[in-house]
Amino acid sequence: MKTLVRSLAGLATRAPAYVLVAVIALTVVFGAFSSQVEITDGNEGFAPDAPELLAQDRISELFGDESAVSVLQVIVAGPSGDVVTVDGLAAVETVTQVVAGSGLASLLSESPERPAVVSFLSPLQEALQQGAPLPASDAELKELYGQALEQAPPEFSGFATSLLSDDKDLDAAAAGKGLMLVFIDAPGFDETGDPDAVDPASDFEDFTDLEEQVAAEIRAAPLPDGYSAQPFSIELIFATGDEFQTEIQRLFGFAALIIVVILLFVFWLHPRGTSRLGALRRTGADVLLTMATIFMAITWMNGVGVLLGPSYLDLIDDFGPMNQIIPILLIGLGVDYAIHLTSRYREEVSEGASVNAGMERALRTVGIALVLATVTTAVGFLTNLVSPIPALKDFGLLAAVGIAASFVLMLTFVASVRILLDRRAERGDRLPRAAMGSTGDRLLPQVMERTSFLAERMPVATVIIALLLSGLGAYGVTQLETKFSFTDFVPRPNDLLPTFDTLVEEFGGGFGETTQVLVEGDVATAEAHNAFVEAIENAGTVDGVVSFGDQAARQGPLELLGTLLDENGARFSPPVADAARAAGVGPDLRVAPGADVGALYAAMAAAAPEDTAQVLHDSGDGFDAALVDITTQAGEGGAADLAAGLRDAFAPVTTVGPSAIATSDEIVNDVVITSLRESQVSSLAITVLAAMLLLVVNFWVESRRPLLGVITILPVVMVMLWSFGIMAAVGIPFGPVTATISALAIGIGVPYTIHITHRFQEDRLRFATTERAIRSTTKNTGGALAGSALTTMAGFGILVTASTVPFQQFGFVTAYTIGLAMAAAVLVLPSMLVLWDRWHKRRGEPTVDAHAVEQALDGHAPAREPVYDE
Length: 870
Description:
alpha+beta; single chain
């Protein structure tokens, strides 16, 4: 460690111009590679080995995804709290006509099992089409509606009544709201994701624009007085993606601006012994140098990340959503590193050191703390390489690269530029030494110095209070809700969100959710077929599955078989009927033992090739997979229970050999959250233990005081508990965005505490008493920490003004987590260090091994007051 710092210090002080040229050249090279960065979306990186996620890929591979049925849901509401009325029927007919005359008309999806538009009054509409008289009053309509329900097949009437809001009264034929469903063939994409592979005629963006236009026409339709029609679909709610990206760029631009403004305050040089212009010029130069270095570190990280990516070394899968948090971490660390290095350099030069000597001294003192912080933090993140989640592996590796880049640039680029600038001033006797020495007299250092009274006067009480708060935080962790909702990422305000809330609260989540069950194996056996029939029957009883009577609402091989065997239906197939008789197919669609199911499925494929290909896969050697789409209403909150219920329902299938996996976007999201939570616990424990081990070894080598490593890491553990405890207290759930808070707590908290501990060792040699040492530490290093923390807190606190919930939560949690890290470093850790110091004194031994520390600092231990002599 000492050798590395000494080498970098020697390069920066002896050949700053060459160092500057080399750094700029590397930046250009890494910049060229960083232009190849592509930020990927999706959950693949979070749960790569999850069967539910793999099943989605497998479904696309086996059954294709050229198109999918999108459901436009329309909530009809009336002024009287009842939509089963004549006016309600008129509203339904008007919306139907608007859809039929819109640009979506050619994309309407109609099948023998259902029409393209289904409404809560569909039984009544069916009766009217068959010749029933048009009701002249609400009473007549309700009577006819009741008769239509009784005469309709149970599955049809059951589906229709499920389109009435939860306040429905079937005996009185009344409901406060009704739902209409418009089934549309939405365009799909080539599974490679290549935009050029998309059929221009079915371009998804054009489809979304068209759906928005139709939704606007539905809202503006001339309905009866007091009636409204509110459309909703997933495509509509995410149609403002470009606005979201624009807002994120705006927010991060504001964050950068705020950081610059606060850095101007932190770096402001009082014009003592120099002109105001000179003070302003130096302040501006330090701010610009800091920001330039941070952006260079991000460029280096992205460039190295591309080299480590699949196109080159294949050590990183991709730049997933979680990796977008790393630049924020690098900004926090970069500001911290720059403030500490600049403050120490100013301190040394103000006391008479030359530019070269002052920078060398700053690098060899602060540099030791920086390299320790860098190594500890980087190794902590590298422990994610043992995680089973690739997203966390990539995150850990890229974070370590970025942290190392920040360290190298701070000790080379910043030092070299500052030396080159100040040498000219030194030669011209224009170096503002007196002004540079005024840094410690400013507000933040003075405030931080006053906080030392806690460590001096009441260290035991301070530590006890911190431990009690940690206990509360640990309890809060157990109460922390795990949640992920796609609507959280919808910018506010959004007129569609109230409609979505109505679907959830009054229609059980609506009917836009479909869960697919993929069955793989030899499905063309009598045992597998009959087990499949039993599984479908079981699915009708699973919570979250939409059922008509005792039958689940679904589309699959059995439904297709039933359609082809319906002698009264338009799609009746005699060859399929012959194959069914040969297989002994009964009324419940079970086959006789030992039946040739392969021949039955082959007959289906010959009679309806396209429909069969969507539910049965023929490998060429036989049918090896089946797919069933089940209409569900579990939502995000019930996805885990739904998956478990369907797993149990399909147990008969898995018992006879094939596998059966239920999957949907909601189920995959739940798997992602569960995987992330479980992996975070193990990764966090490994990270903390690794950081503590490194600190223990370092302080044993550096000062023969290994216990300092444990003391240094404990406040960081407290910060994590406090942070998650506050999340639980204010109702912020654990999700993909907030899950990164532990990484921030470690990435920011460990360097903070290392700076305090390392400076305390120096000051304990410098001053004769513990109190003066801790006061000096909190004033100088604590002041720099405060400037660093406040800069990052204010910069990213601007995210609380975001229009999306996750970024609001992230901004809030990031701000207070960094604030807690600073508080732990300048309040709790000094108290622990004072208690540790007093413990050594009671044992009659020196607190610090002076010889070991001087050797660690390469023989540069200061002695401005009598060295430690207690």
